[in-house]
Design a protein that fits this description.
single chain; five-stranded antiparallel sheet; 10 helices
């Protein structure tokens, strides 16, 4: 249990508290962060939280603190010798036309295009004559480019389209419905979060939302998700709750999906980000109820395709590396393997009446084509080692599209003929980047407990391998997310400047299936940090870099990774770049949908053992006064309603108060931005220019 109270030594008013004294060694004058020492008691252990007031990110005091921190940070960043160099380099490398794969809806073919430096990609379409026109231009929705469009979904006829509109990067979104002929908005609903848009006929669509939170919607806890059906032209208040109101129907995450043949409504329900219950309703039978297909959250299961009353689903139930099964609603418990589990992790998509099995072989793509009966048609030849993504379409499609890239190869869009198995280039990359001038190789290193971990290292081909180079080590290690080789024009700027980029596939990710994921969760979380530390030690031992030229970077769960490693091994790196990190491990679950992350982290209230484990690595609670920490640039956004900025605020305040060395500790707080999705190109350039210039300056490479 937990008990919180304010110590009587300090008034509730911030002005009555003594300011934190700054470390003598620091040459920087940081804004003074007031302490209001609040104490929590967990299982008899007192834990002080002096910066709890920073959790109120709508208060005047927090706003003043944010402005003061940004003033110091941007004064420092803007004066860095290589800031302008990277700004210009990033603008050049990002200034090329990029297009998505095309897709057909109704009488039109749609695709997204960014002409180069547009803040948001524009949605275009072609008519039957091949004439091109703008369908939706998100850049016209806000002056600063911070409004983005997501989850575009068309009705079966293609005459209507619904899309989500995010302002400032927030997860809370509005939905607009547009007539695809007149381009007029014909309907709108609000307060949608973590939702798809699934049409049932032309009358309406399913969507998910939480109750409107009490207080600040950017931080307030949201833990009861419901699935609604909205009938076009009616008030949102009249929307019917389809799932989430009944007995035993309270879940943190609920979503609905209608199969392409319009026969089934598929409902996913879960309380954490791993494992889900599955329910299906036959929409062709008016009085049909929900059929339970998976009645516990011990495994993941998701419907991929349906035909003639048979549903095909991908699952890791009794298959740690996933398998494809089929079943019918009259016998939902009788699952039959279509593509059985193999030694490699499987991800299945469907197009043209075929399945495309995308396997990860040490994080590298391998793709095979199967019939609906599970017969192998062919292995698809890819351009090389890297990541192939796509292979998804409609049942009647004769071609399907996929992209291919890796760390030193810009993304190329390819068209695949489903019948012949031939791939052809549909859109070659126009990126101003010479792939032949760079090398990218995969190595395996040994972690602390003997586990072999893969890592891909990328750098210029002419780089001398017998001397230390500026290196960014990037990691994530959580939530079953796999880091597959992908090209980034932003990281290309680092490589072009002579930097090394290294990405290990840490435990906690999904590269080797459920066992690899679980090996980095809850009381196994230290494995992730050990894997990251071992990756750094490998790079140093190889001679490619040293601790004076090494930067650690990661975002969200990766921000936690950087925060934990820099507090455990501050000697290991010169620079730490934790972005939008989960940094207060005792309170993360009290904000927004954070409680859903408990599968990976556990919670402080779960047990005495779990509390002590979390306290042992929580970055906010492990900053030690007098320790020389590396140069640190904490980054976050004021509209991040997924990992609330209070995590970063509190971590930065602790670091500034306790820094025992001379390296700078700063926080860069982006205004009108969220967790990262939909970030405008202009902000991307500014952010990366700051990160790279900060890193090199604190490696002693200012010129």
């Amino acid at each position: 249990m937990r008990l919180a109270f304010i110590l009587v030594t300090c008034s509730f008013f911030l002005a009555a508290c003594e300011p934190v004294s700054m470390t003598q060694n620091s040459p920087f004058e940081y804004p003074q962060t007031e302490q209001v020492p609040l104490v929590d008691v967990y299982f008899g252990t007192e834990v002080t939280d002096p910066y709890r007031w920073l959790e109120d990110d709508m208060s005047a005091a927090t706003a003043t603190w944010v402005d003061a921190q940004n003033a110091v940070t941007f004064e420092y960043l803007d004066a860095l010798p290589r800031k302008q160099e990277f700004t210009e380099r990033l603008a050049r490398l990002l200034n090329y036309e990029r297009e998505s794969a095309p897709f057909d809806e109704g009488q039109y073919t749609y695709f997204r295009r960014n002409s180069g430096l547009q803040n948001q990609a524009v949605i275009y379409r072609l008519n039957a004559s091949g004439e091109e026109s703008v369908f939706i231009d998100p850049n016209s929705l806000s002056e600063d480019g911070t409004t983005s469009i997501a989850a575009l979904s068309f009705s079966p006829s293609g005459n209507l389209a619904a899309y989500q509109k995010s302002e400032g990067g927030a997860d809370w979104r509005s939905v607009e419905v547009i007539d695809t002929e007149s381009l007029e908005v014909v309907d709108e609903i609000d307060d949608v979060k973590f939702s798809g848009l699934a049409w049932q006929g032309e009358t309406g669509f399913y969507y998910s939302r939480y109750d409107s939170p009490e207080g600040n919607e950017l931080t307030a806890k949201t833990d009861h998700h419901r699935l609604y059906f909205h009938v076009l032209g009616t008030a949102q208040s009249a929307d019917r709750v389809v799932f989430g109101n009944g007995a035993n129907e309270k879940y943190r995450y609920v979503s609905g999906y209608v199969t392409e043949d319009q026969q089934f409504l598929v409902i996913y329900a879960s309380n954490t980000t791993s494992g889900n219950r599955l329910f299906v309703r036959d929409l062709t039978a008016p009085d049909a109820g929900l059929v339970t297909v998976a009645d516990d959250e011990s495994a993941d299961v998701g419907v991929v395709f349906s035909k003639d009353g048979t549903l095909f689903a991908e699952t890791n139930r009794s298959a740690a590396n996933n398998r494809l099964v089929k079943f019918r609603l009259d016998a939902p418990e009788q699952w039959q393997d279509v593509i059985p589990e193999s030694e490699h992790v499987l991800n299945v998509s469907a197009a043209g009446g075929q399945f495309f099995a995308q396997y990860m072989v040490d994080a590298i793509s391998q793709v095979k084509q199967f019939s609906l009966d599970g017969e192998l048609v062919r292995e698809i030849a890819l351009p090389g080692p890297g990541d192939a993504a796509g292979f998804s379409g409609k049942a009647e499609d004769t071609t399907v599209y996929y992209s291919f890239d890796n760390y030193n190869t810009p993304s190329t869009l390819l068209r695949f003929d489903i019948a012949s198995g031939e791939s052809s280039i549909y859109r070659a990359s126009k990126a101003p980047f010479d792939s032949d001038a760079y090398v990218s190789k995969q190595i395996f290193y040994t972690s602390k407990d003997g586990t072999q971990v893969p890592m891909i290292i990328t750098h210029r081909a002419d780089l001398a391998l017998d001397q230390a180079h500026p290196t960014i080590l990037y990691g994530y290690g959580g939530f079953n997310i796999s880091l597959t080789p992908s090209f980034s024009s932003a990281m290309a700027a680092w490589l072009e400047a002579g930097g090394v980029y290294a990405v290990p596939n840490l435990r906690g990710g999904g590269e080797y299936g459920k066992a690899w994921h679980d090996a980095g969760t809850q009381t196994n979380k230290q494995n992730v940090f050990d894997d990251f530390i071992a990756a750094a030690e490998y790079l140093i031992a190889s001679g490619l870099t040293d601790s004076k030229h090494l930067a650690l970077r990661g975002g969200s769960n990766g921000g936690l990774l950087v925060g934990a490693v820099m507090t455990q091994r501050p000697d290991l790196m010169a620079v730490a770049l934790p972005a939008v990190g989960v940094l207060d491990m005792l309170r993360y679950h009290t904000f927004t949908a954070g409680a859903g992350w408990a599968y990976d982290y556990g919670t402080a209230e779960q047990s005495k053992e779990m509390f002590e484990y979390l306290l042992g690595y929580s970055p906010v609670h492990n900053v030690q006064a007098g320790t020389a920490y590396p140069a640190t640039l904490v980054t976050t956004s004021d509209h991040d309603d997924r990992v609330v900025p209070a995590h970063s605020f509190k971590f930065a305040a602790h670091l500034q108060a306790k820094q025992g060395g001379a390296a700078p500790v700063m926080i860069r707080i982006e205004k009108d931005a969220g967790h990262g999705a939909g970030t405008p190109t202009e902000k991307i350039i500014d952010q990366y220019a700051d990160l790279f210039a900060f890193a090199l300056a604190n490696m002693g490479l200012e010129r």
